[in-house]
Write a structure and sequence with these properties.
By secondary structure, the chain is an alpha+beta fold. Helix content is 30%, strand content 23%. The protein has ten helices and eleven strands. A four-stranded mixed β-sheet has the order 1-4-6-5, with helices on one face. A hairpin with a 5-residue loop joins strand 2 and strand 3. The longest helix has 16 residues. The chain is globular.
Length: 269
């Protein structure tokens, strides 16, 4: 079985408080993005084997989130061995959730391959054990996230009038730990004043000055290339632009060009 895990973007991200368990409470809108994908193939095998293909792959395949997805289901359902081949195209350390998407898709694939019978809610419970944004990819539709990001509610948002452009500055990646370091001290007071749901209800044209990603306050000073990319999107005519997640990816929302000669490839979400 082969699938194509897609990344996500975060439209707005408020870091609210640090929790006693060391995690942070946040609120964000997760939206799937289909302009790039990884390739994940899982087949039955006589021995367990995991291979990861792609540039700058420097981690143990047996510790990849896809391997952990297999392990947590195997612990409960005694699965047979499988061969996993993951081709990475989604940039690592870009705030796009590529690894989480791979793991969630692996859970769904294993559930189907071996007729385990878990519904989306049960799969999301397993996914939440793997990563804070992993559960989102079980549903893979716009979801409002709270808690660590694992508490999800379907969110009705219509942005069909917009083209979405996503870029990652060449050679720049951001670790989650780096992004969280000092975020509560650095975040602007403005971003904490208005609940995210209220801002999202405004017209997209009003988002620029009131819809924030709190991680920009800690990431931009260390990685000015990301801030420069956001400015470039606005220079190119974006109505709204922001960093996704903890960076380094930036997305811009542009008005659709209503003719056949579009200036760049667009993705509908």
């Amino acid at each position: 079985m082969k699938t194509f895990p897609n990344p996500k973007i975060n439209i707005g991200l408020n870091v609210l408080r640090k929790r006693p368990d060391g995690f942070h409470d946040l609120e964000t809108l997760f939206v799937p993005y289909f302009g790039m994908t990884d390739e994940l193939e899982i087949t039955a095998g006589s021995e367990q084997d995991i291979r990861i293909i792609g540039p700058k792959i420097d981690w143990d395949p047996n510790k990849d989130l896809t391997a952990r997805a297999y392990e947590i289901l195997d612990a409960d359902f005694n699965l047979p061995p499988v061969n996993i081949v993951l081709k990475k195209n989604i940039p690592v350390g870009a705030g796009l959730g590529g690894g989480s998407s791979d793991a969630a898709f692996a859970l769904k694939m294993l559930n189907e391959m071996f007729s385990i019978g878990l519904d989306d809610s049960a799969l999301a419970g397993y996914a939440a054990r793997l990563g804070s944004d992993c559960a989102f990819f079980i549903y893979n539709r716009p979801m409002f996230g709270t808690g660590r990001g694992e508490m999800l509610e379907p969110y009705d948002i219509d942005i069909d009038a917009w083209q979405l452009k996503v870029e990652v500055p060449s050679g720049v990646s951001v670790s989650t730990a780096e992004a969280y370091r000092g975020v509560l001290a650095a975040k602007s007071q403005d971003s904490a004043c208005t609940p995210l749901r209220e801002v999202l209800a405004l017209p997209v044209e009003q988002w620029k000055n009131c819809l924030f990603n709190d991680f920009e306050a800690t990431v931009f000073p260390v990685h000015p290339e990301i801030a420069s990319l956001k400015r470039r999107f606005y220079d190119e005519g974006a109505v709204y632009a922001a960093m996704s997640g903890s960076g380094s990816a930036v997305f811009g929302m542009f008005r659709k060009i209503l003719n056949k000669r579009e200036s760049f490839a667009s993705v509908r979400i």
